[in-house]
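Our preliminary data section would be incomplete without showing what the modeling component actually yields. Below, a chain of 478 amino acids is followed by its predicted structure, encoded as tokens that our downstream tools consume directly.
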Amino acid sequence: MTSSSPSVEAAEDDFSVKMSVKHIRVAVIGNVDAGKSTLIGTLKSGILDNGRGQSRLLITKHKHEIDTGRTSTMTTHLIGYDEDGSVIQTLTNPNLAATARVQLKSDADIAAEADNLVSLVDLAGHEKYLKTTIHGISSGMIDYALVLVNANHGPNHMTRHHISLAVAFGIPIIVVLTKTDSCPSHSLKSTKDEIANIVRSSGVQKRPYQIKKMADATIVMEKMHALVPIVSISSVSGDGLDLLHSLLSVLPKRRRHQNKIGRNFEFLIDGVYNITGVGLVVGGFVNAGKAGVGDTVFVGPLNDGSYLKTAIKSAQISRTSVKSVISGNVAGLSLALSKDQRKMIRKGMAVLETPIPATRTFEAEMVVIKGSGVDGTTIKVGYNTMAHILHIKQNVKVEKIELIDDSQTMLDSEDEIVVRPGNRAKITFRFMKRKEFIRPGMRMLFRDGHVRGVGVISATVEEKEDDVVAMMKSMLKE
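Predicted structure:
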């Protein structure tokens, strides 16, 4: 670990630097019938779909997903581009492309060959799995979002909800119209018009921009804050796939995590695995700093708010062993823990250079989102909801509300302040289950079925000991 600020170029592990500086993460979202997994399979393998979902079988792992055709988990798929923007060939034997014995290169091989890397994060489209998609957007450190729309059917309420979710997190979107090979021209025009209306609406406030030739990709790459590129593609005929590859290959990295390499090490845990012969491995994102194999770290907070002291035994990025990990890396760390200690580790924890006091109560500046149609959501003190703070997901309770916008203070029948869609407020939340590692500046949202509010944590609140707890502690000392 390091507390100094060496330049990224001088970092000892070139692969870690490459996977931080030249790697972007793109969420693939959209309704259940938009062809998200099929498109990812086609982009990654270079093999066109047969119209019956052959391409998605190359990347689908779970049997129930293969049987139903519905993605229910979050999976990540790496695509590489050379310095000219050409996609790296991922087939181990291109001559077998037309057979059932297709094998793809490992992520390690792709990462080693490529100059620029794009991870496509496949998220669930069905409303049943919306909470999985919300968590994926919240914890995935996403740079951009591909919003897929079936050109035959046009956008529906889930499409609008996914767009609102990306906009709420400040993620630039790219609209991809799929299945154009089977779409009549009048339906395609109608879908484009609907998309344009959504993009220009007050909730998004951007300009749609049709990508029709390679040069268009370079035009939009520096204007993603104001434009929404629209690409029409077909995974069956291959139309538009070269334009989409061109756009993905030139997208600039939006999150500058490499600038945080001089801070204390901070690793956010989003997966916990017990691997035979290795021990406990935690997967997640390096949010700040740098750590090397053999370094002493602290993992927690545990249920009582404390941390476990441990050491990093090994580290991997894209299944490639590395000596160190730096801010911006998606990595796996093997930690030296006893059998009993392993049982204490869970998703939502952090691996830190120095232990930071865990927090139960915090303040956040929030905006309550206006839902589509009639939305009677009213938030007041005592309101319980599910909060997503980066990799953390836990029930919270509203303890205090202060309106911070110019709107008139609204009171209910009991003269309590209430917050309704469109209001901005400073809200004090309390975790219901356990303390968590959070800090000011972290983005959060809360939901109860659909997303209800988004904002940023402004402060953590130091709690005074409850009288009963203080009395019990004094009795124990005696």
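Residues 2-12 have pLDDT under 50 and may be disordered. The first strand starts at residue 23 and ends at 30. Preliminary results of this kind motivate Aim 1 of the renewal.
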